[in-house]
Design brief:
The chain is α/β, with parallel strands linked by helices. The protein is built from six helices and five strands; from the N terminus they run H-H-E-H-E-H-E-E-H-E-H. It is elongated, with a radius of gyration of 17 Å.
Length: 147
């Protein structure tokens, strides 16, 4: 809906950060909220149904040199993961974002793709344009017999 914030949680969080970090006035917080809304709206208007997603077949083929980032909990990663993957829990994606390289594709995955999609969206909103999500996550990777 035009003029309405599509996700009050994200915009509210950004405004809260602005208030806490800068001692912003109500007008400055409202301006930050509007800027965040516009940024997210612009992204959504340009996004396709599968924007930022990659299939297991694509990850094993054209994107073979990509860095895989396992975003599941540590015990899941320790039990099994895609060969060569590094581990960053999805909730900590933004804290460690500077450790994600800009010079090659990065494929985030979790169990099904849902949690890594949330982390990937946040990372793309903050400028990481080389981040893709493994559609179907580790479950589809295993079903496809990938190593």
């Amino acid at each position: 809906m035009p003029g309405k914030c599509w996700n009050r949680t994200i915009c509210g969080a950004l405004c809260g950060v602005a208030l806490l970090l800068g001692g912003a006035s109500a007008a400055q917080a409202a301006s930050a909220k509007e800027a965040a809304r516009e940024l997210i709206s612009d992204y959504l208007m340009e996004a396709t149904h599968t924007a930022g997603m990659v299939t297991v077949e694509q990850a094993r083929g054209d994107l073979r040199g990509a860095l895989f980032v396992d975003m599941r909990e540590a015990p899941q990663y320790q039990a099994s993961h895609i060969e060569g993957a590094i581990h960053k829990e999805w909730r900590e994606a933004l804290e460690d974002m500077d450790e994600i390289p800009d010079d090659r594709m990065v494929i985030l995955y979790c169990g099904t793709g849902a949690l890594s999609a949330q982390a990937g969206f946040a990372m793309r909103m903050l400028g990481k344009r080389n981040v893709l999500i493994l559609r179907g996550g580790y479950e589809d990777w295993v079903k496809a017999g990938a190593k």
